[in-house]
Predict the structure.
Amino acid sequence: MILVNGNVQDTVSALDRGLAYGDGLFETIAVRDSNPQLLDLHWQRLERGCARLKIPFPGISRLMDDIERLLEHARQAQKPSGIIKVIVTRGAGGRGYRFEPDMNVTRIAILSDWPSWQGTERDTGVKCKICETQLSSQPVLAGIKHLNRLEQVMARAEWSGNDIAEGIMLDAHDHIIEGTMSNIFFIDRQQTIVTPALDQCGVAGVQRENILSIADNAGFKIDVTDVNLTDLEKYSEAFISNSLIGIWPVTGIDKHDYQIGPATRALQEKLFKS
Amino acid sequence: MILVNGNVQDTVSALDRGLAYGDGLFETIAVRDSNPQLLDLHWQRLERGCARLKIPFPGISRLMDDIERLLEHARQAQKPSGIIKVIVTRGAGGRGYRFEPDMNVTRIAILSDWPSWQGTERDTGVKCKICETQLSSQPVLAGIKHLNRLEQVMARAEWSGNDIAEGIMLDAHDHIIEGTMSNIFFIDRQQTIVTPALDQCGVAGVQRENILSIADNAGFKIDVTDVNLTDLEKYSEAFISNSLIGIWPVTGIDKHDYQIGPATRALQEKLFKS
């Protein structure tokens, strides 16, 4: 089921700036036991993104109306698990790249089935590769979840099959930034949680924010910092996260292996209970 | 009039990857005296872009069918001038960023009216500003006209009104790259045509390619190279180009003034006759 500006329809204007320029933002919300997860964090990031791109924020009440209708649809279909993707674009219009401040934003909400993960990743961990496609540095767009995602599309095309679950992307200075669809965390030998700073590129995941909060509450030391490719051997554990997968332990990045250790398991446990 | 995959319709799937990720390309084609301009160069760039993004090229015959139908529509409306925008996306589908190699691309062709320029820019020249929004370096995407255009949208939002016609964008190393909607050329005191190299960022405009070819045929020396912001004073003339505007002389970039000189006028003349 798809809602476009509150109407049940599966199309948008061919003139929408989301299509023309990727001029918009999105959120991917997990639905578990018929409850949308981390909604506050999703709306906060969406509002931050709108402010950054100067797109009028549609307002939480309209967004929640969409969510409630999709949840009701899922309940009737007896599907307690699912994904709701929310897209907000600047709408249709403007001449060229120029936009008017008072444009009518387009609000899209898409309900889809829970993906058919293999299901064991959370327990047994996943292998990752370092992608050749790098993330470009752009502080104007860093951190927000905008619709310009060709770098991720190109990086994800670098492998196929199920042996590799995620590709890790670097910036041009060989800093580790994130996975194509996830954020990445490391745990050093002092049990500090380390995750890359995202002020130059990358998406600040809501699950990343949630995990940092959980880790802080659990008494972990946290270091949000530059992580160099050459630092990989400094860490004893690694994991990736996003809104849908929660925490997946990382057992290897290219030829560098990690054990699934106590910090990762502790955070998984706390995340599960949160 | 809008054609989507050859059908007269003004909507696309809300699941199209062009909307979801900017996963596609576009061309903006000028129509003059009922003739589409620089078509060969447009199709060549589109095909190059498809190859780079691993999107199946729709083929010239399908694209030309769309063009012919829009031209017929324009003729019936007695509009000999206009713009045809062609968008090609990877289509709808795939799971997340991953795509299948055999996806059905989406082909969109949009006919619109010739823009209401003030009309004197070609003669009297235009003022430009240096934008604060920089272009990020990404060799994987440099040169092609893909749909990830948030940098241009943000740069174009830096000014309003008619005093400034174009914003010039730099990379992170203070190289001059291009305008938000145009390429830029300079002419040095030895009458060499200088234009920025676009191997790290920027769009290689079809008009840029056309002008370089015309300049070469006219016996100008050409230098496609890095242009530093501090080089501005080295040049005696400057102009910007794109498919719609042709050549607009630049009379100033921020506080740096240029005369409209003989090389710019000679190229305008040759472009007009080509």
About this structure: The two ends of chain B are 29 Å apart (CA to CA).
